Amino acid sequence: MALTFTLDPAVTPALRDGVLDLWTDVSNAGGAVGFVAPVTREEVRPELVRHLTAMAEGRHRLLVGHDGAGEVAATAFFSFNTHRLQTHWVWLYTVMVHPRHQGKGYGRDLLAAAADAARGFDGIDAIRLGCRGGLGLEHFYGSCGYKEVGRVPGAIRVAPGDDRDDITMLLQLI
Description:
Layout: E1 4-7, H1 13-28, H2 41-56, E2 60-66, E3 72-80, E4 89-97, H3 106-119, E5 126-132, H4 137-143, E6 147-159, E7 162-172
Parallel strand pairs: 4-5
Antiparallel strand pairs: 1-2, 2-3, 3-4, 5-7, 6-7
């Protein structure tokens, strides 16, 4: 069953808790979404609050995918640039699919829905995202049309002695 995607959903307690659970579960399954396992909901919550605050201020927008049971199964946050010379592209952050849904094509569906949503944003020509090296994420994003446009070797320290590349990917929308 396909996911149902909603841009800018109402931020209800159920949505907030669903995104918090998703972020925690993805992190604990080894996902590269800003944390290193093990992580608790309480450790993730402040970062989610920052994202929700940015949404309320109009700096972020949320795309959420619900599964057939109505559970939050995927997310991506758009972040808008404030610099006048960079307002023609957006960042895509916290791109997640719940581990129980991995391998079903939902990641590709999420990225396609994100591209469709971004095409509807006034003046947006491209999406940029960053990913952590060492997991093959750049190959997945590349298979979805993104191009690697930058790499900083060892810029992400996952643990002492475990430095990963910070990879920037770009999807042209026009």
